[in-house]
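Two folds, back to back.
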Amino acid sequence: MKKQLIASSIFRFLERGIVVVTSLLLTPFLIGELGEHDYGLWILIISVLGWFNVINLGFPSAVQRHITLALEHADHQKVNVVFSTSLLLFGVLGIFAAAGLLVLASFPSIFGINTLDQSTLALALTIFCLKVLWDFLMNAIHGFFAGLLRYDIDANISSFNAIAKALMVYMLVTDLNIMGAIIATLVADFIANILKVIYAKRIYPQLSFSYKNAQWHEVKALFAFSKHVIAAGIAKSINTKADPILVTKLFDLSSVALYSIAVRLTSHVQAFVSSVTGIFSPVFTKMAAKNIDMEEMFNRTVSINFFVAATLFLPLLIFGGLFIRLWVGDGFIDAIVLLGFLAFSFICLSISEAVKNILFAQAKHQLITIINLIGAIFNIALSVILAQKWGLLGVAAGTAIGFFISDIIFNLILLKRYNNYQLWPVIKTFITAVIIIYVVGLSGQYLVTQYLSVSWLALIIAGAISLPFIVILNWLLLLDSEMKQKTYQLLANKLKRKNKQ
């Protein structure tokens, strides 16, 4: 299992690197070809599309858990029952989601954009109904890969998807504008989905779909688990997808483009973090199935989460302003002010993701839905209120406060309710991580602004020099002592073997 986890982390990290590189290369190209206004419209289209994932009703988490448990007991028949049932279930839900998106496409005026933009938005959402249906059906396959801890396969196919999509966007957008990006997205996703089905069958030959295996009692069992995840999914969509729509209503599409630059950078960094930290969910499920105490694993996971988050977000805060100037130009330099708030929002996930892993594994996730919804409400309300006074900065600040309330305060309260774990080690790690990130990050940002020349060479050299110091600092202050000791022993053993040779 350790080998699978390591391989999964490596390939997920590489996948995220490919996605980030293609995205960073495409963004200035899209802004140049589409203009800030149409680029903001494209961001709005993608954000609206993401809202319809809520209609999965939390079933992906339930399917992943049921498949993991069936695989743990080597019950091939049960795996096929879950797979067949979930495939039909996601097909039905996908049809409802596509129908909902089609209805929304009929009323584009609710987004407060001009008539020409409304026509483009309506056409894009109508075409993307097909993508929504595909994405729902693929949830059954994703749960299967997670249950086998084969994130590496999923990551490799996603890497191919990102490269193929980027190449097609580059070839089509100049002539077809936003429609070129739509066609590229659909074609790349279709090919990637076919590959995922082929590889799922290859690594697990027993996998098969049958109408006879689709059972109503399995639907009820899935719903018994997933019904408490529905509101969590809604809250997640609000927290991650609401800001572009909110900015569109409060400001304009050009402001969406500016805000999206900060969101894009922080989201990419968080995706890198998740590529390492997001592999632990099946591990907790396996431990729960064997009734193993998970407190030590929980503390270790939080420690790893903060180490990875601090190591990756620090360079963003230090060099983010210089990177934005070189990447998309001085016209987007105001996005640097937003990075600090949005980075804090994602740092809060280091605790909440670990808590959710524990509670979902124990099937004690019922109240997660409530606290996530409360956090989402705070997010929207504070963003609207603060935006009236501070503009885009107020939207980012409202998001940060909403994440802190739901992902730190409420999640720790919930963890204590169901598990008598000691909270101080987790709180101490959080405080340490925040101090490191913002004291070192803002100090470094000032030095870069004052003394570093505006060039890619200077950025690369400064980043390469500072990264080892950042890693060592976070290693010493954030990782738990047992992990550091094991690492020291591993390095010592390798040195001994090398000396003998």
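---
second:
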Amino acid sequence: RIEGVDPNLELGGLVDLYMGEMENPALLFERMKGYPEGYSLLANVLTSLPRIALSLDVPIDLTRTQFVKEWRDRLKVFEPLPAQQVEDGPVLENRESGDQVDVTKFPAPLWHAEDGGRYLGTGNIVIMRDPDSGWVNAGTYRIQVHDAKTLGIMISPGKHGRIIREKYWARGEACPVAVSFGHDPLLLLLGGLEVDFEENEFDVAGGIRGEALKVIAAPYTGLPVPASAEIVIEGEIPPDEFHNEGPFGEWTGYYASGERDMPIIKVKSVVYRNN
């Protein structure tokens, strides 16, 4: 637990230092400069084998070799478990829409000196629904804060979220989207993997846990989102509006993709938990 850190470079510097080797602690930043008490930020959640094992619901005392064998054995019998939609959840404790929306209230660090701006979405999942099949995809794509009601979204070519977005754009429609922050680390892990096309990451998570993931219908888009997420931001990705985005210092140690015009999310609704 670290108190009083400055989200302007200091926070990102500490995250990088502790990310240099596996088995370092995760970092929970509290009482950050410029933000009221009750706002916190968790980083490096998956930088230890025991924490990865905990997220995948396998014994946390395995060696690396034992872990790989355990996981391979589980994959042989794995079956997805459909998500369970519920009527309410902690993420709905606070609801804001229209003129109330201001995404700059949430801690979005300047992680690295040459980043193109502040990034709220690093460990997030971006949720979209295929307009043809109804398939729900949850992928991890970076989210930059432009202003109180505008986010930038960068999705590499070929990624499932981009394929879905292009389908809406081909119809001349904005793409509905919900972005979840502060959820089960398993969802972040799955959001960064190549889960099969038309396979729902929420259902995969349920199969791994042995318990259906509880989701609610987000109030603006109706998209299923984790009921226990800390924050969910909803909006639309219009086909004809772009904004400078990037670069961003990736975990691999380089600045990715430079500064380019990228699509935006026009934010319509925000729900979030107390504290």
